[in-house]
Amino acid sequence: MASPPPPAILTQRNVRPDEFDTAPGETLFRLYAWMHLARIADNRILELFRQGLIRGTVTGGQGNEGLTIPLALLADKQNDVVSFTHRDSCGHLIWGSDLVEHLNQYFANAGSPTKAREGNIHHGDPKNRSLPMISHLGAMLSNVAGVTDSQRRFGRPAVGFAFFGDGGSSTGDVHETMNLASLLSIPVIFVIQNNAYAYSTPTAEQFCAGTALWKRAAGYEMEGFALDCTTDIPNVVRKLGAAIEKVRRTSRPMLIEAQVLRLRGHAAYDTCDYLRPGESEGFFARDPLPRVRADVVAAVGAARVEALEAELNAYLEACVKRSLPTPRPTADGMEADVFAPSAPLAWRPELTGGAAPQQLNIAQALNAALRKILTERPEAIVLGQDIATYGGAFKVTENLFKEFGRTRVLNTPLAESACTGYAIGLALNGHRPIEEFQFADFATEATTQITLNAATMHFRSGAACPLVLRLPCGGGLTFGSFHSQELESLFLSMPGIKGLYPSTPQDAFNALLAAYEDNNPVIVFEHKALYRRGRSSVAWDPHYRDVWQPRKLRDGDFATWVTYGEMVHLAEEACDYLAGEYEHSFDLYDLRALAPLRLDAIQASLARTGRLIVLHEGRRTHGFGAELIARLTEENFAALKAAPLRIASLDLPVPFAPELEHEFRPTKEKVIDRIAAWMG
Ligand SMILES: Cc1ncc(C[n+]2csc(CCOP(=O)(O)OP(=O)(O)O)c2C)c(N)n1
Ligand SMILES: [Mg+2]
Questions:
Q1: What's the CA gap between 491 and 456, in Å, rounded?
Q2: CA–CA distance, 277 with 280 (Å, rounded to integer)
Q3: Beta-bridge partner residues of 409
Q4: What does the alpha-carbon distance between residue 422 and residue 503 come to, in Å, rounded to a whole number?
């Protein structure tokens, strides 16, 4: 159903600073229209919440209008990038979505832009580069940097706007992203919305008294200034307009500390008991709306202002009326939408630089796949720490920098969270990044970006996030607990992430192509001990997508044995030994794809053998084997002849000394002993 037509004055969603020179009264009148609409819409939403018609909670933008409206009107909505916060509801109205859609989001009905899957104000318009917010403060800044950089790489003169509060300014992501944007010269305007409070915490408890947040700009070699957005709105338009023009022209980031007001509490339920006596009155005394209204009345006359207000009030009510009866959402498509659909890419039928198969180890096979991707896919960007001249900690990216240069093979600073958020931004805008983590263990620094931001993107916004995350993992190399872990259970227990774990050079080559063409975040687990364990023939394989399925390595009838990663090789040796010594044979499977799990062939095998062995290097408790055994046995319970056997590492941090690590991990001898005992 179409939305009620907006008042004519709202069809103009832009302003230029020089309009205040030529037509100051009319220009302010237009700004006032948006400011008034924003205020009454936020107030009405609060009222609807109090009437029980809106769930969750409501964080209004009352007091932010003097910043967000000028900025959203000044932005080039065809090119620029923004992530609005929980204080910028009015920004959504200007950037793209209409008021009914906005209200649908709050009512969480079938017309909600997030399909009612995300909470109030967590919507966006990713197609128009207004990024759907995640709650985690600071986390969206790097996404803005990524989309803005992607725009620039495509030759579009974009500026990014990254908003955050005085509280959010304390997060590590803010530091990481400002440093990254400055380093890469990404034209992002970082806008601090300083409203003196973070929930109940005053700025005096947030940072050292006397701190001027805008001065932090100097530490990042960028320009910064403070801007009062509560008094002189034409001045705000001029200052912001000049800043945007400069950032667009110079491609240098900038930091603006905007003074705004929190006229209401943190959210609908907040009673503001923590405010000092008179403080709230002080905020209201600085409210720009009555002042702007008085100026507009002086310029265009009270009658026009009153008529405009009446028209906007009626429009709001018409939109509420239109939105309210919209049907409730259904659960249709929820599970399917966890992942974005993917389609195969058209690859040249060759390895890289020739059709002949080559003898490669896994590191070389991955290198060949990266070279092939960078050669054939102009949207590919490889990034990570020390991956350029140095070729990466494990030399997987060796020589790629020489061949493709810095725009395609990018050394990143030591900032996993912002760099992953930046990669997410690239992915959202048509690039396809492949990020190397120096060790899988350091991916925990980017947990929010991986598991809550990238992984949930399609479900909550409909936008695809094609991102490959390469995680060198696993132990056995005496690297200690921070460089040896298997983290598949940690990451893959979250919905929206796919996972591949190749164990051979050919599978490693295939896995990277399969992961690359997928429209979702895919983690490729790369066991460090396998990188250089022998070479084998690697060729272009038209069936490379088969890595999403398990591969059967041995045929047998005593038991079904499932494993992956380095343990595949150990299992093969153990199989051979057990066949020779006990005359027992096994259906042995290399799982290859850990998410989504494709277990049909393994289920059929278990139905036949009635016995199950699961072997993995990760820890036992909450380990990946728990899920495998549950899935396989719940379908085949009646066929079981014995309790399943689960072989995993001990429930310890990975110990350092070789003797201790040997005790910690499954070894061939231990596996044989466990199976022999189990066989009885
Ligand atoms: C990383 C993180 N920690 C805690 C929260 C819970 N939280 C939501 S808003 C908020 C206060 C934010 O203050 P500020 O950044 O100043 O923004 P304001 O609400 O004042 O505009 C907090 C603590 C969160 N969303 N993200
Ligand atoms: Mg604040």
A1: 13
A2: 8
A3: 382
A4: 30
**Residue ranges with strand state E in 338-377:** 358-360
Helices (H), 544-599: 567-582
Q: Please tell me which residue in 483, 527, 569, 616 is annotated as part of the active site.
A: 483
590 strand-pairing partners? 551, 563
Q: What DSSP designation does 452 have?
A: I
Q: Which residue has 């298997």 as its token pair?
A: 486
Enter the tokens of residue 214: 């805008």
List CB-based neighbours of ion ligand 2 within 5 Å.
165-166, 195, 198
Burial track 580-601 (b if 16+ CB lie within 10 A, e otherwise):
eeeebbbbbbbbbbbbebebee
Instruction: Tokens 């905020």: give the residue.
Output: 283
Query: Per residue in 365-424, pLDDT tens?
Result: 999 999 999 999 999 999 999 999 999 999 999 999 999 999 999 999 999 999 999 999
pLDDT at 498 over 90: yes
Residue 659: partners with Cβ closer than 8 Å, 6 or more residues away: none
Could you tell me which of 528, 476, 536, 486 has the C-alpha nearest to residue 509? Answer: 536
Distance of CA 15 to the CA centre of its chain: 32
How does 173-182 read in b/e, with b if 16+ C-beta sit within 10 Å? bbbbbbbbbb
Alpha-carbon gap, residue 623 to 619, rounded angstroms = 5
88 in contact with ligand 1, CB cutoff 6 A: no
Q: Which pLDDT score, from 0 to 100, does residue 201 have?
A: 97
Average pLDDT in the chain: 97
Decide if pLDDT at 4 tops 90: yes
Percent of residues, the chain, with pLDDT higher than 70: 100
Q: What is the mean pLDDT of residues 329-334?
A: 96
Q: What SS3 state is found at 652?
A: coil
Average pLDDT for 6-20? 96
> Is the CB of 213 within 6 Å of ligand 1?
no
What confidence score (pLDDT) does residue 354 get?
Answer: 76
Q: Which of 31, 7, 86 is nearest to 240 (CA)?
A: 31
Q: What is the pairing mode between strands 81-83 and 160-165?
A: parallel
Q: How far is the CA of 266 from the centre of ligand 2 (A)?
A: 8
Label residue 97 by pLDDT band (50, 70, 90).
Answer: confident
452's CB contacts (< 8 A; 6+ apart) are: 134, 136, 139, 494
Of residues 202, 360, 189, the one with CA closest to residue 272: 202
Distances from the Cα of 49 to the Cα of 76, 79, 97, 116, 120, angstroms: 33, 35, 21, 16, 11
**Does the CB atom of residue 258 touch ligand 1 within 6 A?**
no
Contact 567, 537 (CB under 8 A): no
61 in ligand 1 pocket by Cβ < 6 Å? no
pLDDT for 295-318, tens place per residue? 999 999 999 999 999 999 999 999
What tens digit of pLDDT does each residue of 249-259 get? 999 999 999 99
Q: What is the pLDDT of residue 1?
A: 59
Q: Which residues pair with 256 in a beta bridge?
A: 191, 225
Return the best residue to mutate from 84, 88, 137 for the ligand 1 pocket (most ligand atoms within 8 A of CB).
137
Task: For residue 89, give every residue at least 6 positions away whose Cβ sits within 8 Å of its Cβ, in sequence order, or none.
Answer: 38, 41, 42, 45, 60, 61, 102, 121
Task: Reply yes or no on whether 86 is catalytic.
Answer: no
> Taking the CA atoms of the chain, what radius of gyration do you get in angstroms?
29
Query: Tokens for 661?
Result: 């690590």
